[in-house]
Amino acid sequence: GQNIDQPTEMTATEGAIVQINCTYQTSGFNGLFWYQQHAGEAPTFLSYNVLDGLEEKGRFSSFLSRSKGYSYLLLKELQMKDSASYLCAVRERTNTGGFKTIFGAGTRLFVKA
Amino acid sequence: DSGVTQTPKHLITATGQRVTLRCSPRSGDLSVYWYQQSLDQGLQFLIHYYNGEERAKGNILERFSAQQFPDLHSELNLSSLELGDSALYFCASSTRTSGTYNEQFFGPGTRLTVL
User: Fold this and answer.
1) Are A94 and B56 within 8 A, CB to CB?
2) Do A99 and B56 lie within an 8 Å CB cutoff?
3) Contact with chain B for residue A103, Cβ under 8 A
4) Is A45 close to B103, i.e. CB distance below 8 A?
5) Following DSSP, what letter does each residue of B37-100 receive, concatenated?
6) pLDDT for res A97
7) A102, B104: Cβ pair inside 8 Å?
8) B45, B47, B53: best mutation site toward chain A, by most A Cβ within 10 Å?
9) Would you tell me which of B11, B88, B110, B114 could form a disulfide with B37, CB atoms 3.0–4.6 Å apart?
10) Residues A24/A100, Cβ–Cβ less than 8 Å
11) How many CB atoms lie within 10 A of CB A76?
């Protein structure tokens, strides 16, 4: 079955760097996504990895190791507005040509001044 | 604004009732996904439709059903509602089923409260 683990909460200081880890077990792996979600709002897309390695996008980077079932999201130059939940999600391809996206429970990040 | 619309924004109903949630995907998107997010749980994948056909199913209860219409909008029907069905229901859309990079764009959600 599918299983995605990420820390429940993290706290970091404004201007610092924080790394949010995600481990997963899945079959039919077809990509890993990171989304940001502010309380009561819709998730918004941050990054996507399907091959091993690092993808950089401004202040955000995401890393994937498929053999280890491991990913991390790196946030640099933290700002107060980065306080949110960060969701790790694994996409699986189904045998009917569809996609299941399984989300982790999310990591709540608190950025303090 | 993701371009995905959901109605209604809020819905309050009683146990045993039936409700319909509606979703309009972004223009041109053929795939629609439904998710449930309860307070104590993360986003739970319910179902995926592509161009009117069901393509993937998650842990969707038998009391729940969905469909996607020819104009690509989708409806999620929840029946025999229970208190535990109270949650935020999100719809998301993406461009196509195949391909390696099709992020999902989420609608603002419908908050369902069952009393």
Assistant:
1) yes
2) yes
3) yes
4) yes
5) E-TTS-EEEEEEEETTEEEEE-S--TTEEEEE-TTS-EEEEE-S--GGG-EEEEEEEES-SSSS
6) 76
7) no
8) B45
9) B88
10) no
11) 14
pLDDT (tens digit per residue) in B55-100: 889 989 999 999 999 999 999 999 999 999 999 999 999 875 444 4
- In angstroms, the separation between the Cα of residue A67 and the nearest Cα of chain B is 19
- Write b or e for each residue in B18-46: b if 16 or more Cβ atoms lie within 10 A of its Cβ, otherwise e: ebebebbbbeebbbbbbbbbeeeebbbbb
Task: Please write the tens of the pLDDT for every residue from A11-52.
Answer: 999 999 999 999 999 888 889 999 999 988 999 999 999 999
Over the stretch B8-37, which tens digit does the pLDDT of each residue have?
999 999 999 999 999 999 998 999 999 999
A30 at interface of B, judged by CB pairs closer than 8 A? yes
Walk across the sheet containing B74-78 and list its strands.
Answer: B5-7, B19-24, B74-78, B64-68
Tell me whether residues A42 and B109 touch, CB distance under 8 A.
Answer: yes
Nearest alpha-carbon partner for A2 in B71, B88, B43 = B43
Query: Which residues of chain B have a CB within 8 Å of the CB of A104?
Result: 42
- Establish if B86 touches chain A: CB-CB under 8 angstroms: no
> Over 60: is that where the pLDDT of B49 sits?
yes
Query: Which H helix or E strand runs over A32?
Result: strand A29-37
Exposed, middle or buried, B70 (CB in 10 Å: 0-12/13-18/19+)?
exposed
